[in-house]
Records
---
Amino acid sequence: MKYPELDSLSKDELIGIVEDEAKNWLAHDGLWFQAVERRFGIEKAIELDKEAWSYFTVIEAKRIMKRLGLPEESGLDGLEKALTFRMYRRINDQEILWENGALILKMTTCRVQAARERKQMDYFPCKPVGVVEYGKFAETIDKRIKTECIACPPDKIERNFHCGWKFSIQ
């Protein structure tokens, strides 16, 4: 085996490692963003975050496709499956449902936004980054998929989810 240190661990211990690694990834992402924001301001930080996500989300989608054996153009069914294997899925609560032939993803609890709520801070305005992230992820799964934002900060939170995305085939 490639990782002998994992051989003796239970399923629960392995899941714990996956969750910890997802938290570490998110912590690094947030710290990187804050460093850029301090140095260059929020607008530049969001611009650079969008650029980074435009590459990362494609890499993540391709790795998930390979691991799950998803063919290109696997449609909304393939996207539904792939969305459940994204790294952030291990630390955020999401709901996926079908509505009039479209796939809807609602991030019911986003770890970043929930932390900001607890600290009584304004929501992080992640919509511009989310448009790139979710759009490119879906396009990588199937280039026919169109992504629409239902709601995402800085949109006012008057709903039971932090952000929502609608995916459909043109």
---
Amino acid sequence: CLDGSGYPFRLKADALSLGSRIVAVADIFVALREDRPYRQGLPQKEILCIMKKMAESLKLDKNLVGLLVNNYKAVSLLVSGSEAGTDIR
């Protein structure tokens, strides 16, 4: 997290590489998007709402979340469970 609350090293934004920031956004996106044993994957509107709030509270990189928002359809097609290209939540 950019605010230094991240596990395990509690690094702040200036110590986090672009790669680390990308992985954080991707990890959270996939966790929200995919079906899990305890819940169905969330719809697009809810995913983006959660991620935008995380960016506003300095948990995620705003620029990367913006890229996700602008490229949601293309990114969503790459997530497990949407190989047919028809499951755009």
---
Amino acid sequence: MERLETINFYLLDKAIRTYRMYSQKKLKENGYKITVDQWLIIKVLMENPGVSQQEIAEKVFKDNASVTRIIELLVKSKYLHRKVNPKDRRTSILTVTPEGEDIIEKVQSLVLQNRKIAQTGLTLEELENLNATLKKIIKNCQSTS
């Protein structure tokens, strides 16, 4: 029977989870009161203005209930503004506030530093191969579902 440490997808998941824990620790150590998931949601909204909450959930790989909770915290922290959509009162229009843009800008250098540390010892070619491989896996799984 194969050992967990030899399964590519186990290692991939472990790498992602380890990186997220490391990133969250660095955010906290540097005095930022934002989580990795909150950062992701703000980034999605900055890059995709007017995106629906369902689309946010898909982009950050979270269920709708988790995204709802995170958005609520971001609104309370004044990083997001939420108003009722006049065209469909069941939905909200979310916008990033100046405070939200500011926290993303402040955290950006730390995000880049975290990535640099995580990728230490990897060549550009290795990173390009990794990206190509991951894109193939994604395509394979999407085309069969």
---
Amino acid sequence: MTVSHFNKTFLKLLFIALFFCLNTTYSQPSLPQRTVSATPTQPIDFGTFYVTSAGTITVNWQGIVSTTGGVVIVSSVNARPAIFDITLCQGRNVTLTYSPTTTITNGATSITLILGDTEKGPNGTTFTVDTNCTFITTLRVGGTLDIPDGAVSGGYTGSFSMNFTQS
């Protein structure tokens, strides 16, 4: 092997060794979250009440309770709106849509739950979420129970859906 050939081989091996020793990579920072995430954190609760005849009981998004007709509030201590935590980065807009009514039941009797306005506005409202990805935008939702004559006492269960669409 000649010196010139040795130098070329040595330089090639040196180049390959240096190439594998370089461990630095360059890239753009990761992109922020681009999809909306909504987590229910509190169910709606109407407190304790009794019914003498048909009427309604309402818990608004602020947790304030009111009644009509033969519905009498006993305790509003546990009354509270439903709460959703919404996460979406960079101050993007979210459009809120939902069915305004749903039925809840105790197995024997059904009651209509009418979803009320949220703290961001009524059904179809578009609002801007907080501008930082580490913050959560809280959404409070109120509702009204429309209780018919002859409703049976006891616990009623049901659910409602809310759609959060990035706009």
